[in-house]
Amino acid sequence: MPLNRRSWAEPFKIKVVEPLRITTRQQREQAIAEAGYNTFLLKSRDVYIDLLTDSGTSAMSDRQWAGMMLGDEAYAGSENYYHLEDAVHRYYGYKHLIPTHQGRGAEHIISRVLIKDGDVVPGNMYFTTTRLHQEMAGARFADVIIDQAHDPASEHPFKGDVDLDKLEKVLQENPGRVPYVSVAGTVNMAGGQPISLANMKAVYALAQRYGVRVILDATRIAENAWFIQQREPGCQNRSVAELVFELCSFSDGCTMSAKKDPLANIGGFLAVNDDEVAQAARNLLVVFEGLQTYGGMAGRDMEAVAIGIGESVQDDHIRARIGQVLYLGDKLRQWGIPIVLPVGGHGIFLDARAFLPHIPQTQYPAQALAAALYLDSGVRSMERGIVSSGRDPATGHERAPKLELVRLTIPRRVYTQAHMDVTAESVYSVFEDRDNLRGLRMTYEPKMLRFFQARFEPC
To answer: For the segment 207-263, what is each residue's pLDDT rounded down to a tens digit?
Structure first.
């Protein structure tokens, strides 16, 4: 009997293993209660399969580990800085490198350099830390993503695209008050949805007409390039590396969390082309992060990032990375479980509104769903809804986003397909019992980025 489909396997073999602790239901009940029903506050030893985030949780390669042994920990002029600088030039094309401890360090610096009080920053949907740094610098964020991005059931292939009419309206209504357009490659809060190459090019052209910079969040740019390769006409025969370089060419700089695509456990950078912006950023770097040739990283970490950048744009790697995400998504979709469509690059996003229609958004259904999933199996996920959205700084009212999601984030090169099966079956089990789930009320709310530290109890 002929095969209709051939199986695929990861382009690596496992060299080191880390034992996992499997807890009982009673142990998990105690752990989630002590954590205030916030999965961020769980101890990692109480977690079986950790899908909280793909940030800094990837498995590094033997080449990366070997490179770390060549760490030059000189305070000034570290050799590893120049290796990282070369990788940024080669794969992304930017002129200046400003290393930071992680992505939010880069967001902080570029916001302080470019934003003035009263400015408006348009972008293709907010991200939590990005928007906070923009607001702390005195700006207001304006969402200019296409409408389909707010519809979890829409299967638009590029839900990360910017609505050019919305963007131009912001530019026209705020002359001289738009310091840059903030564009994310794969939009996290929309479900890891990509921006098309054609749209990126059009955004850059429109911004240039108005004399406005474009700053790219390149954290998952390789994943975005893979979707372009798979979905955008005329790109099927181009490599991921080529597409990454071209995407970056339609921007004036980028922020990077090297804890995602570049496969490192810590690190990040700001990269820009403008000499004056680079000089201003380096001045702030010395104040907030460290000297310009190490920023917030040790030499060994810069080496791991430099090697990881090269590995991240290899077609076989990114095909397997996203293939695992698609595998989990296909299983859930076949069982009728509501997820954000199409499946994005770094995780599966459960549609908590459709999953738990009986729980109002004011009772944090996504937070409740993440807690229920942990209770069922020890799988740790995270909320991406009204808790993450926070409060409007002007009114103090809770922002109520259209998307109320639970993110199952897949670390790179860490888990097997069997772990994905366990996760899928746990989601199915919770879905079968969904009518019995209750909402939560918040018992402690920090002032900023509340989803990290807020505490809850069942209603």
So the answer is: 999 999 999 999 999 999 999 999 999 999 999 999 999 999 999 999 999 999 999
Among residues 75, 209, 316, 402, the one annotated as catalytic is 75
The single residue of 81, 204, 269, 451 carrying the catalytic annotation is: 451
Residue 127 falls in the annotated catalytic set: yes
**Sheet with strand 347-351: strands edge to edge:** 347-351, 405-409, 382-384
- Of 327, 344, 326, 338, the C-alpha closest to 192 is 344
Give me the residue spans of the domains in the chain.
Answer: 25-54+315-458, 62-312
Find out whether 264 and 60 touch, Cβ atoms under 8 Å.
yes
Q: Which CATH architecture has domain 62-312?
A: 3-Layer(aba) Sandwich (3.40)
As a whole number of angstroms, the distance between CA 262 and CA 62 comes to 14
Give the pairing type, strands 180-184 and 140-143: unpaired
Tokens of 114: 């470019």
Alpha-carbon torsion (72, 291, 253, 160), positive or negative = positive
Indicate if 438 belongs to the active site: no
Does the domain at residues 25-54+315-458 carry the CATH identifier 3.90.1150.10? yes
pLDDT in tens, 365-378: 999 999 999 999 99
- pLDDT at residue 402 in the model: 94
- pTM, to two decimals: 0.95
Could you tell me which residues come within 8 angstroms of residue 221 by beta carbon, excluding any fewer than 6 positions away? 92, 185, 186, 244, 247, 248, 254, 261
